[in-house]
């Protein structure tokens, strides 16, 4: 009798364990199906729009726990999209760079491998390449700005002003930067690591919508452009270091700006592929490097002309600041009609935080006063036009205009705050000279 009971209980126990194993196995498989290792964003968007003949970046999130996993990505329509390379990114994710070609639909094949063993394969993500109507969109939205006669009046001043800055470049100072590149490294660290993180934290603090939050992060990721060395001159910074930082940070932006923007876009759940305006970055470099090189040549060959340009550099610079503020307002007036207080508060703090951050980093390294001011300005002043180009080329029109509120607010805040600093510095110097 006891042995019969024991056999009955054993059979029941074995049957229970069998069904439990089936349940656990089925639940595990169901969890695997419902929660794949590979996703773009949160996985809810499977199709991404992109213009023809452009370069883009896609960030693929990988939740596989293995440390040796690698992602292979191929385009099933190479005439529409060509995958250029795949590189590892933060948190086990992967950055996919691609080139769009003709209009059409390109399914992507994603294969997660670990030591040549297939972990997961997905072919449901796709990129739709359309005949780009983005250029007309930008012209329609910003046409009144590009046709503004004030812009054409300022262009000769901008060119002459950059030539004058070339006359202030010291060759010895350039050579010393090769051996002591601390200001340049601090500028890159602040501009492409800390500032995007600050933009992301501000977007969380103010609960900004995804598109607007990504616009703020991209604005914080943009290099300084030509405004940095202009403010360095007016505020007693090191002009040679400022020009060098501007040029090198613009070069670094070709790789670091899309990387940080894609990473924070993934964190924010923004599913758009980001178009990197490499041509605009290259034109920015030329527009800085060519007139400055001409100014350096004028300094060597035509010293009288150089002295004349140096006499005009400060009034030209002040005129450009006021003109830039006026143009930034008119350029973004149609976008800023529906702006809300949270993005205004977030955008106003960006230049202030960047200035304080740059000065603190330079102070910690014991850099001299003029270089401290220069690093502070280079980190605190962003090239909002570059951020605007990324947003206009990466979003649909309505969403692009909405996201573009961030770079316009940052641009207006930066120009206004720097103008106040310049005026305050002039008043302080005047009072000091009067007191003496």
Automatic annotation (TrEMBL):
Residue spans crossing the bilayer: 183-206, 212-234, 241-266, 278-298, 310-331, 343-365, 377-395, 407-428
Record's keyword terms, sorted: Membrane, Signal, Symport, Transmembrane, Transmembrane helix, Transport
GO biological process, one term: response to retinoic acid
Pfam families (UniProt xref): NTCP5_P3_N (PF24690), SBF (PF01758)
Keyword Transmembrane helix appears in the UniProt entry: yes
Superkingdom of source: Eukaryota
Record's signal peptide: 1-30
Gene Ontology CC, one term: membrane
Membrane topology: Multi-pass membrane protein
Keyword Protein biosynthesis annotated: no
GO molecular function, one term: bile acid:sodium symporter activity
Subcellular location: Membrane
Family the UniProt entry places it in: Belongs to the bile acid:sodium symporter (BASS) (TC 2.A.28) family.
UniProt-listed PANTHER family: P3 PROTEIN, SODIUM-BILE ACID COTRANSPORTER
Name by which UniProt lists this protein: Solute carrier family 10 member 3
The species this protein was found in: Pseudonaja textilis
């Amino acid at each position: 009798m006891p042995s019969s009971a024991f056999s009955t209980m054993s059979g029941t126990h074995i049957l229970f364990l069998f069904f439990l194993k089936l349940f656990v196995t089925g639940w595990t498989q169901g969890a695997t199906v419902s929660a794949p290792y590979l996703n773009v964003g949160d996985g809810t968007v499977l199709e991404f729009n992109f213009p023809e003949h452009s370069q883009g970046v896609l960030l693929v999130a990988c939740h596989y726990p293995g440390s040796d996993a690698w992602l292979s990505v191929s385009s099933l329509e190479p005439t529409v999209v060509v995958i250029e390379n795949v590189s590892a990114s933060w948190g086990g994710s992967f950055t996919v760079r691609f080139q769009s070609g003709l209009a059409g639909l390109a399914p992507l094949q994603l294969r997660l491998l670990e030591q040549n063993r297939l972990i997961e394969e997905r072919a449901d993500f796709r990129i739709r390449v359309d005949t780009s109507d983005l250029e007309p969109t930008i012209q329609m939205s910003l046409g009144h700005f590009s046709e503004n006669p004030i812009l054409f009046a300022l262009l000769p001043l901008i060119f002459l002003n950059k030539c004058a800055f070339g006359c202030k470049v010291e060759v010895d100072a350039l050579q010393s930067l090769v051996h002591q590149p601390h200001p340049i490294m601090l500028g890159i660290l602040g501009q492409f690591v800390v500032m995007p993180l600050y933009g992301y934290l501000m977007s969380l603090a103010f609960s900004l919508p995804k598109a607007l939050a990504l616009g703020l992060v991209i604005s914080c990721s943009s290099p300084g452009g030509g405004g940095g060395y202009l403010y360095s001159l007016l505020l007693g910074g090191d002009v040679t270091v400022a020009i060098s930082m501007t040029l090198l940070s613009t070069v670094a932006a070709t790789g670091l700006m899309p990387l940080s923007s894609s990473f924070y876009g993934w964190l924010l759940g923004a599913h758009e592929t980001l178009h990197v305006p490499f041509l605009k970055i290259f034109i920015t470099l030329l527009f800085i490097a060519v007139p400055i090189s001409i100014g350096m040549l004028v300094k060597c060959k035509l010293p009288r002309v150089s002295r004349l340009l140096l006499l005009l550099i400060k009034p030209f610079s002040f005129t450009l600041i006021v003109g830039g503020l006026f143009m930034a307002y008119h350029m973004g007036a149609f976008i800023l009609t529906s702006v809300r207080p949270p993005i205004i508060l977030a955008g106003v703090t960006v230049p202030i935080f960047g200035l304080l951050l740059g000065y603190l980093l330079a102070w910690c390294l014991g850099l001299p006063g003029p270089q401290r001011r220069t690093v502070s300005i280079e980190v605190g002043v962003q090239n909002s036009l570059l951020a605007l180009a990324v947003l206009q080329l990466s979003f649909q029109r309505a969403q692009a205009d909405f996201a573009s509120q961030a770079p316009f607010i940052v641009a207006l805040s930066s120009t206004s705050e720097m103008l106040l600093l310049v005026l305050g510095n002039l008043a302080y110097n005047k009072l000091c000279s009067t007191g003496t």
